[in-house]
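Provenance

Sequences were taken from public entries as deposited. Structures were produced by running a predictor on each sequence independently, with no templates supplied. The record for Band 7 domain-containing protein from Fodinibius salipaludis is shown for reference.
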Amino acid sequence: MESSNQFFDIITWVITIAVLAAILLPQIFKILREYERAVVFRLGKFHKTKGPGLIMLIPFIDKIERVDLRVLTINVDRQEVITKDNVTVHVDAITFFRVIDAEAATIQVEKYIHATSMLAQTTLRSIVGQVELDELLAERDKVNKNIQEIIDRQTDPWGIKVVSVEVRDVVLPENMKRAMARQAETERDRRAKVINAEGEFQAAERLVEAATMMREAPMALQLRFLQTMSDISEENATFAFMPLPMEMLEVFKNMSGVDVPPQISDDSNDTDNES
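Predicted structure for Band 7 domain-containing protein:
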């Protein structure tokens, strides 16, 4: 009988110790991952920051707040913003940040993720409202950098480092899209006309140079005449081509009183004056 009572006493103590261990051990020992830190509060006052790995606490006296040190992502919801040139656009962005001081992120601000998200939304609206639409579309990297610097400067006392901010999408009104399309089309037409005019100008320069060369060497005009005959002559042609000497054309021009063109040599001019 006594042995039975001793056995039950032992079982009772074992169960009691097991229950106490199950309650106290999780309060005493905590395991933190490599990217986690524990901000320890002892009787409500900040004690220290511990981790990673196995840490020991005083049960029911020490309380901890786990802080994730990895890069976190905040999706800034789409905002309706009026740009500097009074164009209504819808923009959204993504904010990347990480906690570099677990103590400050826990003590200085309540729910630092929510606070950073609200700050990112406000800053996005403020910066987009200070730039024109063309700058927002063409210089998005500059806008992203300005937003990142402002948010980082304001979250620095919270122990938060803003890694980057990316404006993800800019939605324009339909009438603005049509206006920009017309502007782009007009700009392309203008460039085409300028290129065409430059081509005509260069062609005119070459023609002037060719005329100067033919004036200095009249035989070049005759060679060009023969080359033209070769170009237009084809097999099975339906037309007849009759070449005429250049001298005949000069005679007719002299008879009609027309000045001799530049390709006429100086010797022919002297002959006309003597006659």
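Residues 8 and 34 are 45 Å apart (CA to CA).
The chain is about 55% helix and 25% strand.
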